[in-house]
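Format is chain and fold; as here:
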Amino acid sequence: TSMRSIIFANYIARDTKRLGATIDIEHSHVRLLGTLVLNLWDCGGQESFMENYYRSQRENIFRNVEVLIYVFDVESRELEKDIHYYQSCLEAIIQNSPEAKIFCLIHKMDLVHEDHRDDIFNEREEDLKKLSKPLDCTCYRTSIWDETLYKAWSSIVYMLIPNVKEIETSLNEFAEILDADEVLLFERATFLVISHAQRHQHRDVHRFEKISNIIKQFKLSCSKLAAHFEAMEVRNSNFAAFIDVFTPNTYIMVISSDSEVPSEAVVINIRNARKHFERLEKESP
């Protein structure tokens, strides 16, 4: 519930402490990129509700599922029961939606000592991949207190965009035209990174998720002051970065190691590229 609130309802991490436990099922619809609709079923983890899911509501919940996102509490003291429910869930998926993509989130990793996080996550990932056969399972470590939550959800949404490869090809061409180091495309409502073009290596592999987190918090701060966030330029002796509204459903970020690149040149190129990327959005099924 805290994950859903942060990614899709614009909560900040500390505000999720006000959220109560999920009772039965909370069903919501989230629209991404204008045409992509996620039907989110937030299922309460209490034992009585879990049994109800797999008996009386099995077909209703697990029919026509495109993606299953199963969250494990890394500090759970009932791992055997957690695994039992996960396997019951997989059985229901195989019966009703055998083509669904499976994601497991090992959550609350911030509660694990930093020296042990890799070992614990790798162990859980190996076990879950074995348990998930014959289905493929992709695992992510997550915490509401850092960028891992954005990394996981960006990866999940990325796999749901039908023409993402075409978008990436166009972004790479745009980066070449601008002679930019990187170009990032963000989903407008969630600020999840949905595509990027990279022309130069960067040492921080988590930079996209950090940017998502920082900019989204800044947008929230603006909204609290009744201000509207539209564009931003950051420049120092090492780089220049531009964030701007792009299509009706996206923001774009352009990063250049040429710190003296004229702002007007970047802004004009972004404006000229808008129609092409708007067409790609409309063509997405």
